[in-house]
Amino acid sequence: MLRNIKQPKVKKPVMVMLHGSGSSGAIFAIQTHLLAKELSKTYDLVYIDAPTASEPGPGVLPLFAGMPGYYRWLAPELPTASTRLAELSDLARYIETQLDSQNINPKEVVAFVGFSQGALVALALLGLQLVEQSTWENLRFSVAIGAGTSGNTAQMDGLEKIVRKMSTMLGRQDGKFPGHSVQAMAIRDSWYEDGRRLASMCARDTTKTMDYRDGHVVPRQKTEVLKLVQMIRNTDEASKPPSSETQRGWNGPFYESIPSPLDSGGNITGGLAVLAASLQA
Question: Does pLDDT of 274 surpass 60?
Fold first, then answer.
C-alpha cells in the first residue's frame, strides 16, 4: 500500500494591507472581507495597525465603536515635502518592524493595498522601492482604494511633489509615477476627486483605474469586487520583470547618485538624505 505523503505547502507572496486614517488593521480586515476572500487564494494578506493613535476616522463610527484602538499613518500638517518624505521613511521602517515581528521576510512582500489615507501610503512606499530606498526588493505594485485626505490638500500636494521628484530621478520627462498600480474610486465618495488626482499622478501605461458605485468604503458588490480582483491579478502579472532584467533597472543622472540600501545592510538614511535635499532645492 502506497503511503499518502503530504506535499509541502507553497508559500504565498505577501500583500500588506494598510487601513485608512482613524481605523485599524482589525477594522480593515472586516471592511475587506469580500475582497480578502478572493485575494487570499493567491496572497498571504497581512493587516497591521498604523503607528499613531487617533480619533475614529470617516465612516468608522458607529459601526466600529468600542474597538481597542484607532490609528493614522500621516500627520495632518507638515511644513515641507521633505518633512513628509522623512515621515514616509519612518513609516517604512515601522512597517518592516511590524512584519519582522510576524516572521515575514521583506523579500516576501510583493504589494501594498491601502484604503483612504492608507492608499496614499501604499503608493508612496512603492515609490521608495522604485528608487531603491526600501528593503522590499520584490515589491512590484500597489493598490489604492478610495484614496483620500479627508479634505487635507496639503497632504496631497506634498505627495505630488515627491512623485514628481521621483519621476525625474527615474529618468522620466512627464513627472508621472512609473510604478504599477491599481486605483479604485467610489463615485459617491466625498473624496472622489482625491482619488482621481492620485490616479492622474501615475503613468497611464502602468496604471489601471476603476470607478465603483458606492461611498467611502471598500467595494462590496460582487461584480465590483471581482473586477477589482481581476485588475489586481493583471497588474501582478504585468509588473513581473523579465528574467533577464537586473534589480537596478532604472536610470537617470540624479538616480545614479542615490546609494542603495541593499548595498549597505538595509540602511536607507544616505539615500533619503539625498532625496530630501533635492525636494528643498
Answer: no
